[in-house]
Design goal:
heterodimer; A: alpha/beta; TIM Barrel; nine-stranded parallel sheet; 15 helices; B: alpha/beta; Rossmann fold; eight-stranded mixed sheet; 10 helices; 8 strands
């Protein structure tokens, strides 16, 4: 298994009452309430925690980014990835990921990622995302072309990494006169690419068609099974059989010495589900054109003011559904066992600390995960045969898979 | 049944099926609808249809008109319009442009200066306001956007009813998506317009609601200062959707101007 540490890097220090007064705590919530002194301290704490996570035995550190959002202090995951590249020695640096459509120059991204791969001595996993609707609004990237830009930027980055320059790129959304960055990645043919997501059918199919592991962001066990069914079917059509090495999962999981304390801290996971921050207008989450035509009815209701975002399920309900796991390490392992048996991922990200969980409790949680939870989870993973892409040494993509290992594509059989 | 006897048909332009509503009799008058799409045969058209043969195409990508997936800006749409108007036999016509439709009308005039013999642009977008900003529909939901378009917000309900049906919501969504595709950035204006607008040669009247919260009055003022001979008619107490708020008054202004009055 590949076990990762994750935190959304919440900016817990801002006046809650101002957010409540405005009714939103993203996009248009004024940055006049940003406290730079607190933010500087919080960044130092996160760096401490990442260092500790490596010492405690995590295999990877997962990073992400959001814009105009107090719930995530990473406005650019490549910045933290660069710091971790120099600061850590062993962990994989897993970006889940760079939002491609909001970039106007994917070659710049390819260069930055190559530098991170080189400085970290080949420890980069370069995930890509479409970015939420709010990201489109915050960076003024047209949401109607989000998917087209995602796919084209991806193709351009892969070509930049794998085909010697110089070459010219005249695409639909990107136009580069001389693609020839001097710096290219250490890992060959290129760093691994994992794709996180939660709902978009097209992205699941796209990931499967590229043989990229897909990392489900905290869905129910039943939803996971449906996603894996779709992924597996798409993989079969692409000519290979998908397995645990293509499956990732992000679980909110906080542990403490006592159940009482774990529950108190885990309640902070509700913080960014709209109880305190992360309060969005549903219009921002799904701008027109951001989703395919299948979503038009949903969008017409959202934009017509008919659909109102439902409040998140209660904390207790999420505990029962295991979308939040909280307790002593022993209690957490029992829940994780069920999760692993039911959904069989080989990549597991622990979203361990959120909201206003303080630095000391965050570190205590990381230590307990390292000492008691990770070893138990590895044992379960071994028993279930959940080999990570590194352990199974899977090709980084379908394009990098030898033709002899692939079956002819369905409906496209070789004569 | 309305005396304008409206009917619908499709014409083909640039490989696209384009929906056109028309009715009435007399000399032709082209109406360019707002960014929310054409809202059917509304009282404003009916009033115009007493004096004109009124043509209301649904812009490509709006209503039942096919979407040009390749179109990236309003000028692309305006160029398709040259073919639409050719297919309708409107080699020369008067035009009324409503809001976003005013921008397309202006672009058509830039591409073909002889197309229009009279132009009335009502709360027209397309030019960067000298002061204020064009209201950004993409930050709010469509209902709030529409409400901002009425001087009296209660007029939204009077116009569309208390419960807006699913079909209309879906049509608005299709319109909003197409507007996203072609007018996202810069939002609702073209940086070249101040330099090109002086080439508009048709007699032009700008009508603007003083209470327009969607397109600032300064947009019409700017057009008026740039287009030789342009007239500006500011209506006190009117909002952005003047054709819905004051159909008869706006129709009378159009008739007077198109008949040759200034």
């Amino acid at each position: 298994m590949h076990l990762m540490y994750f935190t959304e890097q919440p900016m817990s220090a801002y006046p809650e009452e101002e957010g409540r007064k405005l009714g939103y705590t993203a996009l248009i919530f004024s940055n006049r309430y940003f406290d730079p002194v607190a933010a500087s301290r919080l960044y130092q704490e996160r760096l401490d925690e990442y260092r500790l996570a490596e010492q405690c035995g995590f295999d990877g550190i997962m990073l992400n980014e959001h814009h105009n959002a107090p719930f995530c202090m990473q406005a650019k995951c490549n910045i933290f990835a660069s710091i971790l590249a120099a600061m850590t020695r062993r962990v994989k640096i897993v970006l889940l990921g760079n939002p491609l459509p909001i970039s106007d120059n994917p070659v710049r991204l390819a260069e930055e990622l190559a530098m991170i791969d080189l400085i970290s001595q080949g420890r980069l996993v370069s995930g890509f995302v479409r970015g939420g609707g709010t990201e489109s609004l915050a960076t003024n990237a047209n949401p109607a072309y989000n998917r087209e830009r995602f796919e084209e930027a991806h193709d351009l980055i892969i070509k930049t990494w794998t085909v010697p320059g110089p070459f010219r790129w005249e695409g639909n959304h990107y136009h580069l006169r001389v693609v020839n960055p001097w710096v290219v990645p250490l890992q060959k043919p290129h760093p691994r690419i994992w794709i996180p997501g939660v709902s978009s059918r097209e992205t699941i199919v796209w990931a499967a068609e590229h043989r990229y592991p897909y990392l489900i962001l905290n869905a129910s066990i039943e939803d996971c099974k449906n996603i894996w069914k779709l992924y597996d079917e798409s993989a079969e059509r692409a000519g290979y059989t998908a397995g645990p090495e293509q499956r990732g999962y992000l679980i909110r999981c906080h542990v403490a010495q006592s159940e009482e304390k774990a529950l108190r801290n885990a309640r902070e996971f509700m913080w960014m589900q709209g109880e305190f921050t992360g309060i969005l207008d549903p219009v921002w989450a799904a701008p027109s054109g951001y989703l395919g035509p299948w979503a038009r009815k949903f969008l017409s209701e959202t934009h017509g003011g008919v659909y109102q975002k439902k409040p998140a399920p209660s904390f207790e309900r999420q505990l029962r559904a295991m979308s939040i796991i909280a307790g002593t390490p022993k209690q957490a392992v029992e829940k994780l066992r069920i999760l692993l048996e039911e959904t069989r991922p080989s990549i597991l990200a622990f979203w361990a600390n959120d909201g206003k969980v303080n630095h000391e409790d965050s570190k205590a949680c990381i230590r307990l995960l390292g000492e008691e939870v990770l070893p138990a989870v590895r044992e379960i993973g071994d028993r279930l045969g959940l080999k990570s892409p590194f352990e199974a040494n899977t090709p980084v993509s379908l394009a990098a898979t030898p033709a002899s290992e692939l079956r002819p594509r369905a409906g496209n059989a070789v004569a | 049944m309305s005396s304008g006897n409206p009917s619908e048909r499709f014409v083909e332009a640039a490989g696209l099926k384009v929906e056109v509503m028309s009715g009435g009799s007399g000399r032709p008058l082209l109406v360019m609808h707002h960014d929310i799409g054409n809202q059917g045969w509304i009282p404003f058209y009916e009033e115009l249809a007493r004096d004109f043969t009124v043509f209301v195409p649904s812009h490509p990508g709006y209503g039942k008109s096919a979407r040009p997936d390749w179109a990236r800006n309003v000028r692309d749409i305006a160029i398709v319009y040259q073919s639409i108007l050719g297919a309708l036999g409107l080699e020369r016509t008067a035009v009324v442009g409503l809001g976003f439709g005013g921008w397309i009308a202006a672009e058509i005039a830039l591409g073909c200066p002889h197309r229009f013999d009279r132009m009335v642009l009502v709360g027209s977008a397309g030019i960067q306001p000298a002061s204020g900003e064009i209201f950004d529909q993409f930050i709010v939901n469509t209902i709030d956007y529409l409400r901002a378009g009425f001087a009296n917000p209660d007029d939204l309900e009077k116009t569309y009813g208390a419960n807006i049906d699913a079909a209309r919501l879906e049509a608005w969504e299709i319109a909003r998506e197409m507007t996203t595709r072609i007018a996202w950035k810069p939002y609702m204006f073209d940086q070249a317009m101040p330099y090109l607008a002086p080439t508009i040669s048709a007699p032009l009247m700008l009508v603007h609601g003083r209470e327009d919260r969607i397109v600032p009055l300064s947009c019409s003022e700017r057009y008026a200062s740039l287009v030789p001979g342009a007239k500006l008619n500011v209506l006190d107490g009117a909002g952005h959707f003047i054709e819905a708020e004051r159909p008869n008054e706006l129709a009378a202004i159009v008739k007077g101007f198109v008949a040759g009055g200034r």
